[in-house]
Design a protein that fits this description.
Elements lengths: L1 E2 L8 E4 L2 E11 L7 E8 L5 E7 L3 E2 L4 E12 L2 E6 L5 E4 L15 E7 L4 E6 L3 E9 L12 E6 L4 E5 L7 E5 L4 E5 L3
Antiparallel strand pairs: 1-6, 2-3, 3-4, 4-5, 7-8, 7-10, 8-9, 10-11, 12-13, 12-15, 13-14, 15-16
Length: 188
């Protein structure tokens, strides 16, 4: 049985018959009262974000999950079509289960998180960073680099992100897949 001492970021727990992923957590101690453990939770099987507090040492109910390699094939009206890299079986995932769907490119590797108790897919993640080409961006204004100014750029996947002014159309850039933000230009 797990307790609040086993709490960590990314842990998936069952709370009120729903599954939640721990986004952030901490402990509040006061001189007179017992310590409390709080957590910011993001719904895995729903779209809610909540905060919950336990007494220190209370039981929590973690769910065993497994991360499997898949390949993103294409997107259609039914959702995201993915293929298992080992068995070549295909599954369809709805868009609400995908984090940053605008960063998915055909043929790209991704990870599907499965609930091992029910073998039901819970979410889809990209690797920590992805490299994508810019298909459209306005030219930057020369001399306007004193401030950390950004401009919008359209990616090859159709997504739009903010990039620094020196990034041009046709550049290959690295994007943080967790936040969806620009990291750096990639040398070719």
């Amino acid at each position: 049985m797990a307790t609040t001492a086993d709490m960590r970021t990314g842990l998936i727990i069952k709370l009120d018959n729903n599954l939640y992923s721990v986004v952030d957590f901490g402990q509040n101690k006061t001189a007179r009262a017992a310590a409390k453990v709080w957590a910011k939770l993001k719904g895995v099987d729903n779209s809610r974000t909540i905060e919950h507090t336990w007494n220190s040492g209370d039981n929590i109910f973690p769910v065993r999950v497994e991360k499997r390699n898949y390949q993103f094939l294409y997107r259609d009206d039914s959702g995201f079509n993915l293929m298992d890299n080992t068995s070549f079986e295909q599954i369809i995932i709805t868009e609400n289960m995908v984090e940053h769907p605008e960063l998915f490119k055909d043929g790209q590797e991704c990870f599907v998180i499965f609930n091992t108790e029910s073998e039901i897919p819970m979410s889809v993640e990209l690797p920590s960073s992805v490299n994508l080409r810019i298909t459209y961006s306005e030219p930057g204004v020369k001399g306007d680099t004193a401030t950390r100014a950004t401009k919008q750029a359209t990616l090859e996947t159709g997504g739009v992100i903010n990039v620094p002014l020196f990034v041009n159309e046709g550049d290959l850039i690295k994007i943080d897949a967790k936040t969806g933000n620009y990291v750096e230009r990639v040398k070719e």
